[in-house]
Amino acid sequence: ASRLRKFTFNDLKLATRNFRPESLLGEGGFGCVFKGWIEENGTAPVKPGTGLTVAEVNYLGDLVHPNLVKLIGYCIEDDQRLLVYEFMPRGSLENHLFRRSLPLPWSIRMKIALGAAKGLAFLHEEAERPVIYRDFKTSNILLDADYNAKLSDFGLAKDGPEGDKTHVSTRVMGTYGYAAPEYVMTGHLTSRSDVYSFGVVLLEMITGRRSMDKNRPNGEHNLVEWARPHLGERRRFYRLIDPRLEGHFSIKGAQKAAQLAAHCLSRDPKARPLMSEVVEVLKPLPNLKDMASSSYYFQTMQAERMAAASPNSKNGMRTTQPGLLSRNGHQPRSLSIPNGSHASPYHHQHPHHHQSPKPNGKH
């Protein structure tokens, strides 16, 4: 714990400009998180550590891994409990998946999944005392400048079972939509509860959908319930893939990721894999290059999807036919954009990619 720096409350008041609202980064399991400036470390988030003792802070400081946000120091003064962490410049996975206008590329999603899995595997299987994360979700996965994932917010983290016990009993905390069903029902928490939550996050990365979304049509509010029937079927799983990727994902990688998500989301906790096994499955996925956009099956499926979604498909209006897709699976109207700009960050026209004939506009 000697590597942890001890701050005074005054140090942190100065660093965060008196905790002013402009310094607020967000809210975590402990409370509000503020951005501060500490000379040797540059920018650093400062968050409350409600009720923490020096021993607990030292324990957090001993959890060191490339895929965990690093604890730099702390302040325990009177009733003040504050923790100082390294700053993660790209913010949370949640922000990149659901709030940014440009979609995260597939290979980056798989890189993030692998990093997050390594962080969980360390907590479960390598830490001196096993730790159950308990509230694993996209907002707790932070990204450095190179999109390396690091787990943050150990506010809810729980020591794993000791001796011959198989679970820890606790008041159910965590986030609805991510929590494993057996944990919600019984309060029994095991490392396999985290594996379920990882499966939900992986599904969010595959689909680009939130775990719970009341704005979706009926039957699609709960991501796991909606996706489960598609996960095991080779020909139906394409329907799960985030449409904003426009076919720019690895076919083999997406199949493996969907199978892995299904495995992690098993209703029986014992059937779920260990996080170290999850890491092994994910390792090759960021580098696979078999893009779906060049697959005839994917193009046909895209055409069916667009025809089904067309409000005019039953009114005698023309619906999009497979022949009107370019070889890389785009609708013709997205192929000619003024000034040579592209509608999507993924749309690169290669010399060998011939455009399909454009519709002539005559009905």
UniProtKB/TrEMBL annotation:
What are this entry's molecular-function GO terms? ATP binding; protein serine/threonine kinase activity
Positions that bind ATP: K47
Q: Where is the composition biased (Basic residues)?
A: 345-363
Q: Which Pfam families match?
A: Pkinase
Q: Where is this region: Disordered?
A: 307-363
Residue span, Protein kinase domain: 19-288
Keyword annotations of the record? ATP-binding, Kinase, Nucleotide-binding, Serine/threonine-protein kinase, Transferase
Q: Point to the regions of Polar residues compositional bias.
A: 310-339
Similarity comment = Belongs to the protein kinase superfamily.
Name used for this protein in its record: Protein kinase domain-containing protein
